[in-house]
């Protein structure tokens, strides 16, 4: 298992880009059911734009340096709501862990909580609205419980990712209260929120990178 420092942060974002690319069509399909149909396309464009920027970072870049770069790149390149939402998540997370070269369990919880709070702040959504918050909130809660039980930082990330996946799945049975999907009323039932699904993919990338 790698130490959760700058190398891990780079690996997380690199694997996130790979996962988003692999699931681009599936994310577009989810979004086509209840939104504009371009969530996967937009996110893929953003994360592909991040990759060359990562290569330009100095070797001793901290996790916060990596996440700040991700934030600014996503905000400037991703269309629709996803860019500002993910950008704010990574930006708020980077601020919360600024100055740390290696993240311990508490720092991981703080990072995830700050990222979730950034999404809430930017999107004005809360748990139960059928948005990406419904992946992030259970992820944060699971991370906090895992940390309180004495789990390692990697185990905390695994717990968070699993909870995010479960949260994304839960959105299938809900009426949406935010975004384009909210106009569909009961017709949104049976469709998973694409932002919650992409959030779960990105959190699994964080866990897998830590566990490699």
What does this protein look like?
By secondary structure, the chain is mainly α. It has one domain: Serine Threonine Protein Phosphatase 5, Tetratricopeptide repeat (Alpha Horseshoe), CATH 1.25.40. It has helices spanning about 5-20, 25-35, 40-55, 65-75, 80-95, 105-125, 135-150, 155-170, 195-210. Helix 1 (about 5-20) packs parallel to helix 4 (about 65-75) and helix 1 (about 5-20) packs across helix 9 (about 195-210). It is globular, with a radius of gyration of 16 Å. The mean pLDDT is about 90. Keywords: Kinase, Transferase. It comes from Glaciibacter psychrotolerans. InterPro entries: DhaK_L_YcgS, DhaL_dom, DhaL_dom_sf, Dihydroxyacetone_Kinase. This is Dihydroxyacetone kinase-like protein. GO terms for molecular function: glycerone kinase activity.
């Amino acid at each position: 298992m790698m130490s959760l420092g700058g190398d891990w942060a780079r690996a997380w974002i690199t694997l996130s880009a790979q996962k988003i690319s692999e699931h681009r069509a599936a994310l577009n399909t989810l979004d086509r059911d209840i939104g504009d149909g371009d969530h996967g396309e937009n996110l893929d464009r953003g994360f592909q734009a991040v990759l060359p920027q990562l290569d330009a970072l100095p070797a001793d870049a901290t996790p916060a340096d990596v996440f700040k770069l991700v934030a600014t790149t996503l905000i400037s390149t991703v269309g629709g709501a996803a860019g500002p939402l993910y950008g704010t998540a990574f930006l708020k997370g980077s601020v919360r862990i600024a100055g740390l070269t290696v993240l311990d369990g508490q720092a991981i919880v703080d990072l995830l909580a700050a990222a979730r709070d950034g999404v809430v702040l930017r999107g004005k959504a809360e748990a139960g609205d059928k948005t990406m918050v419904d992946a992030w909130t259970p992820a944060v809660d699971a991370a906090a419980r895992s940390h309180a039980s004495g789990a390692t930082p990697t185990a905390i990330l695994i717990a968070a990712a699993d909870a995010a996946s479960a949260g994304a799945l839960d959105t299938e049975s809900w009426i949406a209260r935010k975004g384009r999907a909210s106009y569909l009323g009961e017709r949104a039932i049976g469709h998973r929120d694409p932002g919650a699904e992409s959030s779960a993919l990105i959190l699994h990338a964080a866990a897998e990178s830590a566990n490699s």
